Amino acid sequence: MPPLSNHYAAMEAEIGQWMASGGPGFGDWMLRVHRFQRENNPVYRAFCAGFPEPDRWQDIPAVPVSAFKTADIRSFPAGQTIRTFETSGTTGGRPGRHHFCSLALYLQAATRGWILAGLPAGSLLAIIPHAREAPHSSLSQMAAWLGLRDRFFFNRREELFLELAASPRVVLFGTALAFLDFFTWMGDRSLVLPEGSLAVETGGYKGARRELPKAELYRQFQERLGLPPEFVWNEYGMTELSSQFYTRGVGRPHLSPPWARGLVVDPSTGREVNEGESGILRLFDVANLGSVCAIQTRDLAIRRGEDFELIGRDPAALPRGCSLLAEELLT
Amino acid sequence: MKTAERAEGLARAASHFPELHPPTARDLLECVRLELGHEEILDGFQLYGSHLSMAIAPEVILHILSGNTPHAALQTLLRGLLLGSHNLVKLPACGLGAFERFFDWLPAPLAAKIETSRQLEGEWIPRANAWVVFGNDDTVAALRGQCPPGIPFQSHGHKLSLGVVLDDPELKSCPLAARDVSLFDQMGCLSPHVIYVRGDVGKYAAGLAQEMEKFQISHPAAPLSTAAMAEVAHCRADWEFRAVVAAGIKLWKGEGWTVVLEDSEEFPVSPLHRFVFVKPLPPGFPDCLGKIAAHFGGLGLWPATPGNAMRFAGAGFSRICAMGRMQETPMTWHADSRQNLASLVRWVDFHP
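The joint structure predicted for all components is written out below.
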């Protein structure tokens, strides 16, 4: 495999240093990464031909998230691909594919983003498939990076229950659907996890047989595991991104790491909505160096200052989401 | 009231909604005659073969309406009142807009035969002798489970409609296709998602785009919710991206409408709201559409000759019509390929 180009490697190293420093400069970095991608990503360059050169990060052309299904989006030669993650369930057809020539920035975004969100490292249990069983799952890879190693209890409910009953302080990580499945399996049983424990749920229920409003799911965390809503976190991410956004409890905005931002835009004009208004969520991620740094999601959100409160996918959108990975494997 | 009197009162009330192509009293009675055999067969015994027969309408019909179009709502209510039944009408949560004024135009004896609610009242279920349900497949399945055994259950689920242009070098059908797509903002089950064209498909798509714009100026689309706007915006962005990376794709758009030219055989489901695809007619049409055929609704055809209609008669459509008439369903049409009055009544025979 040919080595990474000097330009890519240099950009990656610089971005990594900046992310580690926690310093300002998000807008400048976004524009630099955008220019890099415009030069080195032929698909994105063709897409950008219909847009003026942006002067500010908010105007960087965002590809629709479905573009990852339609085309191979790389800002590096295809021969340098070392890993490809794929989106979970869709209504058929080709999954979305996110190619990487280096996992360095993804690793840094996942691990540092976790810490910056205030989540503790260590004592993690996951109810998602191990990366060995789901090599194309970015979520499983992320869990492996977070130090879970072999503490994966996907589809091993009895073992998980016994582990939780015996564990000291624990952080439980899984898809919303996997949690719901576990709670259903628990029947009348319940646990009270030790003080300091918390849960991180991710993904929705799209395409699955079951669905539960977030408030109801969080009520079950309290009833089944003794975790009040403020000890339950939501991780919002997607295969097509390298960074994640976190919130805790119900009705609070998702917070961005310093190297990523969400912009809520009016779908009819593409311009940012006013504070408190809803629109379609556009994500900007400096760490997404190898593909594109600006992605338009199918999710609706409410603008909350520089952050966003997630509403979720509108009912007409195609079903997809991390939770379906678990659901597919369950069936 | 006799059937003829009901037909007169219904036709007068419906005439206040010209956009819904209201039937005349004669149309309504013709519907009774065609489906039940005699205009007065709901009023008393009529000759029926070698004996006499009378159609007995359900005492109470429960109608569960969807918010898609007022047209289907009007027709099902007209049928229920024409039969002489009492009608329990569950309106969609979003209401039916101006159509709800229909009740005000009815003669008092007919107006008294309607009860409405935006929720499905629990006490309605044991009262109903027949159900007519509009909605998506999940809604229909859930309601079917609530319907007591032995009660006629007439369902109208999701359908996919399309247009086929076999020969139109002068683009005469473009304004008609634009009308079919745009009426009711494409929300009806008879609204086409795709127009398949034999001939210069690119020229047709451009012509259709022009006509979509004209129709938008004369009949502006209704304002969209943020969620609907987001879905349309996403689909536009998706196809604009595809147009960049693949050959044979082009998109035209204006305020309130979108036309996408695309040359694959795949049947793309439109996000609605005047978002239509134009594709070349594939050689194996319609068999090449596979599973989609199970959901066929209406086919708008150009030119609409009997010979052309026969080509598609067995394909699964319940309505084949001339382009431009897709939304103009007469009272006598076989919605979902069945007789909709006949499937609600029961019969009593008298053999003297």
